[in-house]
Every structure is written in structure tokens, then in C-alpha cells.
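TOPIC: backbone geometry
CONTENTS: sequence, C-alpha cells:
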Amino acid sequence: MEGAQVALLDRSAEGLDRAAQQIGSQSSTVLADVRDPSAVEAAVASAAKSMGGIDGVVNAAGISLWRSLEETSHDEWRNVMSINLDGPFHVCKAVIAELKKAGRGTIVNIASGAAFRQTPNFGAYCTSKAALVMMTKVLAAELVGLNIRANSICPGVIYTPMVERTLSGSTDRKQRTAQYFERQGMKRFGTVEEIAKLALFLTGPDSSFTTGSAYSADGGSVYH
């Protein structure tokens, strides 16, 4: 992490421990659910205290749902929105005060290429990520005079446990993989490391003139 101190927030203790082991001694962990604003506020306060302040945040929590809008229940819709959209809102709302104290800061929200492409049977997810892109742009406009930047990353299909679960649950793994690559030039999955490097760029000084942008990292997908 280029010498940065990193506070990890997750609702899974196992996931936190695994990530902390990968990062090493420069990391600390806070157990919290991004759907709970009170828990997020407490987590941000704890992280700020342990690190002596906060000057950047990356919101990466997310959930997927493969269901037509007609068949999506109210509870399923709310669950997707509560994690993909409300979660980043809660974190950003809690962390902005700390960024103001630092006199600078960066916000990076992990959205999705699906924010720009109407995908049948993926409506709740597409809607949540499109809203997250716009929320990030509004944050950038509101915070631009405070030396706080906000950008979003819009990945294509990244090989994560969530994607593996989708492939494993498919009746035809080969066909489903081909569907992923149908409109994607590189014809491969992206990696978590590739997205992490873009997030690192957006939190660092090399992107100092960049705010309100939505960065596509999708292997040449045709979303627009």
C-alpha cells in the first residue's frame, strides 16, 4: 500500500483477518456492517483514532442479484440498495468530517460498468451502481473547494468470489463465461489487483487534478 496505514472495514471477521494478513502490520481492522449508519460512524471514529486521522477512503462492499425486475422482491431490491448505494453513502457521510480535519482527502467508490449498460435480469444491480456513479459526481461538486476529491471506478467482470459463485451456479459455465466476454475486447476476466492499482492512483498525488470522474476498467467493454 505504498507505505499507507490502512483500516479495513467489513462485516466478516474472517474476511478482515484474511485481508489484514495480506497487507501486514500497516493494517488495522474494524468489524461493521455498512448498512448500519451507527456502526459505520463508530468504525470511522475508531479508525481515525487508531491511525491519527483519515485522508482517504475506498468503498468496495457490494452484492449482486441476477433477477428480472418483475421477479425482484421488495426485500431483495432493498438489500441490494442498502449495500451497494446506502453503504457508500453512510461511509462517505461519516468520513467527510475526518477529511475536512486533514485539510485534504480522496473518496473512491467502486461502481460498475453495469452502471452504463441496461442488462436484462440485472436491474437492481445496474440501478444501484448507476446511482453510485451520480452520487460520487455530486460529492465531487460539493467538496471540490475543500481539497477533497471524489471519483468512481467502473470495473467490468473481475474474477472475484462473487463471480465464481455465479459461474458455479450456472448450468453451463462455458456459455456463461462467453456471455461475459461477448462485448469485451480483451476476452478475459480482470483481476482484483488491477482494480486496486487504479484505486491507488486515485487516492494518490498523481491524480491530483482528477475529481468527479468515472473510470472504466473493463477490458474494452462497449457499455456506452
